[in-house]
């Protein structure tokens, strides 16, 4: 008991005792924080006066209640609520931006219709239609990510597993974006240490994983930079990595890179739009495959994301779903929508 009292703030403790002696009423010291063996603990201290028949204080009962778990749970909840609040602000911006573009373009079309100048503005109208499509893709990506994260959290998100050559799956994805990376003056390279590796995976979800990682690499790369997508066979598992030599990630952000409601770097957010939920979704899909994902990064020199998937096969494939990626071109436009323009 003496050890506990040594940890109490003497002046605060004495003040509380004096108030109790004066008022002859119960006094409290709530949420007192102390460090014991380098561990932070929280106490509620109750000072209860025990009165005699004449109403005078005969004894003082002091109760010390450990409320560490309760307080720490509240702190975690407050942080989560704050993160969700930041996420809602960010997602509101992300939804408003393409909607504003679409709305402004619709107003412009209306003006052309009223002035009878549609024929004269054909070239401009084609560009505006492309802008509407691009921003519609962007909205689709945001909504898809939110819906899918909700499905994962609720346990309704399912994989359609089939045995696929993961080398072909990833190579086709990389080849499908080369035209776009060329237009951005970026060099994307595919490398593998094995020609064939049959594993059980959902090829559509693998496409989403790889496209999301490529999208991030493009987003934070400059003209002339290189993006390397590689596959390495590790016998019991396969490594799929996406490496860039772009801006990189500061060390303090690495621990939160896959958090659901966090964007990697707010200082970069307005130059590289995003909701901050893409990597969280990628992590969840990888984990549904029984795998894991990690990141290595050096600020100013680039980042490397590595996806690890078990080298397992299934006996009974779901033949309802094709092992080939469906609507590949549309998927690319959706997943790369936040870097497609400019």
UniProtKB/TrEMBL annotation:
<protein>
    <recommendedName>
        <fullName>histidine kinase</fullName>
        <ecNumber>2.7.13.3</ecNumber>
    </recommendedName>
</protein>
<dbReference type="GO" id="GO:0005886">
    <property type="term" value="C:plasma membrane"/>
</dbReference>
<keyword id="KW-0547">Nucleotide-binding</keyword>
<keyword id="KW-0472">Membrane</keyword>
<dbReference type="InterPro" id="IPR050736">
    <property type="entry name" value="Sensor_HK_Regulatory"/>
</dbReference>
<dbReference type="GO" id="GO:0000155">
    <property type="term" value="F:phosphorelay sensor kinase activity"/>
</dbReference>
<dbReference type="InterPro" id="IPR004358">
    <property type="entry name" value="Sig_transdc_His_kin-like_C"/>
</dbReference>
<dbReference type="InterPro" id="IPR005467">
    <property type="entry name" value="His_kinase_dom"/>
</dbReference>
<dbReference type="Pfam" id="PF02518">
    <property type="entry name" value="HATPase_c"/>
</dbReference>
<dbReference type="GO" id="GO:0005524">
    <property type="term" value="F:ATP binding"/>
</dbReference>
<dbReference type="Pfam" id="PF00512">
    <property type="entry name" value="HisKA"/>
</dbReference>
<dbReference type="InterPro" id="IPR003594">
    <property type="entry name" value="HATPase_dom"/>
</dbReference>
<keyword id="KW-0067">ATP-binding</keyword>
<keyword id="KW-0902">Two-component regulatory system</keyword>
<feature type="domain" description="Histidine kinase">
    <location>
        <begin position="90"/>
        <end position="313"/>
    </location>
</feature>
<keyword id="KW-1003">Cell membrane</keyword>
<keyword id="KW-0597">Phosphoprotein</keyword>
<dbReference type="InterPro" id="IPR003661">
    <property type="entry name" value="HisK_dim/P_dom"/>
</dbReference>
<dbReference type="InterPro" id="IPR036097">
    <property type="entry name" value="HisK_dim/P_sf"/>
</dbReference>
<keyword id="KW-0808">Transferase</keyword>
<keyword id="KW-0418">Kinase</keyword>
<dbReference type="InterPro" id="IPR036890">
    <property type="entry name" value="HATPase_C_sf"/>
</dbReference>
């Amino acid at each position: 008991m003496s050890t506990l009292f040594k940890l109490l703030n003497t002046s605060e403790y004495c003040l509380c005792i004096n108030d109790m002696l004066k008022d002859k009423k119960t006094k409290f010291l709530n949420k007192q924080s102390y460090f014991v063996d380098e561990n932070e603990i929280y106490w509620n201290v109750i000072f209860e006066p025990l009165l005699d028949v004449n109403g005078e204080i005969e004894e003082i009962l002091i109760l010390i209640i450990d409320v560490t778990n309760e307080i720490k749970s509240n702190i975690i909840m407050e942080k989560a609520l704050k993160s969700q609040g930041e996420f809602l602000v960010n997602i509101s911006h992300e939804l408003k931006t393409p909607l504003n573009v679409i709305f402004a373009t619709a107003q412009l079309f209306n003006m052309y219709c009223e002035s009878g100048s549609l024929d004269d503005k054909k070239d401009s109208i084609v560009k505006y239609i492309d802008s509407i499509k691009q921003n519609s893709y962007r909205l689709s990506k945001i909504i898809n990510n939110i819906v899918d994260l909700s499905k994962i959290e609720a346990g309704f998100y399912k994989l359609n597993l089939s045995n696929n050559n993961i080398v072909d799956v990833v190579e086709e994805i990389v080849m499908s974006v080369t035209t776009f990376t060329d237009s951005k003056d970026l060099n994307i390279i595919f490398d593998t240490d094995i020609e064939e590796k049959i594993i059980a995976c959902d090829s559509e979800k693998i496409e989403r994983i790889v496209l999301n990682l490529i999208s991030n690499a493009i987003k934070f790369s400059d003209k002339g930079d290189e993006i390397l997508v590689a596959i390495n066979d590790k016998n019991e598992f396969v490594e799929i990595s996406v490496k860039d030599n772009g801006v990189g990630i500061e060390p303090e952000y690495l621990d939160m890179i896959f958090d659901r409601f966090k964007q990697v770097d707010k200082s970069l957010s307005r130059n590289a739009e995003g909701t901050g939920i893409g990597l969280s979704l990628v992590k969840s899909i990888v984990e549904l495959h029984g795998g894991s994902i990690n990141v290595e990064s050096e600020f100013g020199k680039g980042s490397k994301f590595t996806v690890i998937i078990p080298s397992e096969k299934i006996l009974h494939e779901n033949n309802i779903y094709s092992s080939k990626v469906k609507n590949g071109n549309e998927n690319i436009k959706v997943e790369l929508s936040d870097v497609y323009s400019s």
